[in-house]
Amino acid sequence: MSIEIKSPQELVSIIIPTYNRPAYLKEAIFSVLQQTYQNIEVIVSDDFSSENPQPIVDAFNDPRVRLRRNETNVGVGLNATYAFKEAKGKYVASLNDDDVWQKDFLEKLVPHLEANPEVVLAFCDFYIIDTEGKVNQKLTEEQTRREKREDLKAGIYKPFYRLGLIDKAVFSASAAVVRSSSVQWDKLYEAGVFWDYYIIYLSCRSGQGAYYHSEKLAFYRVHQQSETMISGSKNAQAKIRKGKAAIFCCQTFIEDPVLQEFKPYFEKQLAHDNTTLGIGLLRVGQVAEARPYLFKAIAAQKFNLRTLAALTLSYTPQPIARQFLGVAK
Hints:
Elements: E1 12-18, H1 22-33, E2 40-46, H2 54-60, E3 65-69, H3 76-86, E4 91-94, E5 100-101, H4 105-115, E6 119-129, H5 137-146, E7 155-157, H6 161-166, E8 176-179, H7 195-204, E9 209-221, H8 227-231, H9 236-255, H10 263-283, H11 287-301, H12 305-314, H13 318-325
Parallel strand pairs: 1-2, 1-4, 2-3, 6-9
Antiparallel strand pairs: 4-8, 5-9, 6-8, 7-9
Helix pairs in contact: 9-10, 10-11, 10-12, 11-12
């Protein structure tokens, strides 16, 4: 479906949250500045990286891009929130500092928002790439299938609760453009590492629509230092961050009257997230703090091997327990 962009183009704000990935950051900024849709502002939001990325920003010599830098490390949720709150565009998009866009990403998504006032978000499919930027076709197909985009037809989905929050077909961190007025941006900080998932929630709960563009217009990079990989490994602090953020999201969704038809799904997910946080706390030796989360998970799902194993380990002498905790994902 081809829609002609109105003239003059509306301003689009692009947020690039970054932390200690200078080489990838250069690629991300370059892909944004190469957009065929030119009326943009780019806010690179640095979470107190060990090296100030100002020289990287300055090297592009483009007045549309600027750096905002936190004076201390505030975490990914606040880092993104602060940048979003400074955005001036009618539309806003984010791009992970290790991801990139096709040059026509904005050109193909923004018009659907312009043409349809009831659409609050436009999104697309995306490729999975490795550390060198090479497309992994197998992982790409698996991701598209897992997130239910494989048979999704281009068009408007209204409302898009299931599409966004259950199927997780919308990747707002790097593959969507949002109508800025549709989101309360100061709510993001509470969602921590799941700030992008929470954007989808804040967008969809209005009951308005999302437009799906079926082309792959973005590239999501999978590597060992991504938050997704770290939180799925033996990094206890990353697992704690993930667990706390996920619990906040699930509790919010469960309590929202708009989402009551999906309450059983979120209650099941909440039990899983309580276990995740419990395991993370066990790994840092906070046994007493971990047990309440594990008991909550047991009460919600009765029999779950992952939760039962973690709870058993909480009563096991710690030198022995630590040998097994790295296995409990």
